[in-house]
Amino acid sequence: MTPGQTPREAVGATPPSDLRRRLRAARRRQRVVAFVLVAPLLLFLVVNFVVPVGYLLFRSVDDRAAAAVLPRTVAEIRRWDGVGLPPDSAFTALAADLRDAQAARTLSAAAIRLSSDRAGFQALLGKTARVVSASPGPFTRPALVEIDSRWGEREYWLAVKRASTPLTPTYLLAVFDLQLDNDGRIVPVPESRRLFNQIWLRTLWIASVVTLVCVILGYPLAYFIAHARPRVAAVLMIFVLLPFWTALLVRTIAWLALLQTHGVVNDLALYLHLASQRTQLIHNRLGVYVTMSHVLLPYMVLPIYSVMRRIPPTYLRAAISLGANPVQAFARVYLPMTLHGLGAGAALVFILAVGFYVTPALVGGPNDQMISYFIAYYTNESLNWNAAAALSVVLLGFTVSFFLAFSRLVGLDRLTVR
């Protein structure tokens, strides 16, 4: 810009190509600045979410455990066509691998993997490893069959062959009580080993009942808070938020004290002559329903309340002035306007309930445990990380699918009244 020239005249004198170049440079600088500002958050998400979930997805199909513990056996078994029994070199390789694994104390990884395919494999490997470790010489086919006749059965060697690949669908199939047969077809597991389909149904049923209870209790409570006087509403909101200020474990243990056979609830029922004898209220399904509903109720109340407080009271008065009675005005005007908040609360409660672990584990009985209990069991006790990863992946996939379908059906993105 020359002296005495206005900015508009300077812009008008600048060639259009130069203006476009400057505009692109300015936009690039804005994008770089924006990326630098969000880079810490992106790094946090990658480290704490993307990497763990990706590792979880991989562990659900990872099948390198047997190959790491039994490398010579896997190398021999890969050359076997699956007809009859493997060659004698596979038996010799198995004995050598078992001797090395017993000395290195790494046999459990292969035993857990093979037991998930064929029941009894863990005991078979342990027994064989102890015998071959006591003798330094090589073991042939007759020697292994003499240790345990199951080494002479084709089905056990086929299980080793299925475990010789780097990836496997075995764990994901087991989540739905399915398995691969000797011909590679997907078939149901034997009746005595079926477990997870019942657990999935139990998990969904408990989550659905808890969601329904929270809807029945949370909607009237949110309505009362939204229409109460400000001072009363503030006190009630404190009581609603109070569970957030208390640890989940503390709340669950408090319900144990309240619901136990000699607890407060039973004492009060006897004192008021509401019951003639003490009732078992914990370590059963009733205790799970009561405790989970109490813990999750705030997640239902808050979304509904956030929608209700934005509905002008003039809407109901207008409906009544046009001839509707209070019930009709509520059902045809007020309720439809709160469905988005109700849907958001229901989805949030259901998703949280599906993944509950602490409360059912402490308050429920053996037949009340949900899928998260078995994820914890495989992770902490049986050390079968692949099975835990498969259960976690299916649970994550179901949760995401449910949220996407429910949000499309109900419209969870429309939480404000227009």
Main traits of this protein?
418 residues; mainly alpha; MetI-like fold; 3 domains; two-stranded antiparallel ribbon
CATH T-level topology of the largest domain: MetI-like fold
Low-confidence stretches: none
Q: What's the number of helices? A: 20
Q: Tell me the overall shape.
A: extended
Reading off the top of the CATH hierarchy, the class of the largest domain is best stated as Mainly Alpha
Q: What is the overall pLDDT average?
A: 86
The appropriate CATH architecture of the largest domain is Orthogonal Bundle
Order of helices and strands: HHHHHHHHHHEEHHHHHHHHHH
Q: What is the beta-strand fraction?
A: under 5%
The strand line-up of the biggest sheet is: 1-2
Give the number of DSSP strands.
2
Please report the distance between the alpha carbons of the first and last residues.
49 Å
Strand count, sense and barrel status of the largest sheet are:
2 strands, antiparallel
The CATH superfamily title of the largest domain: MetI-like
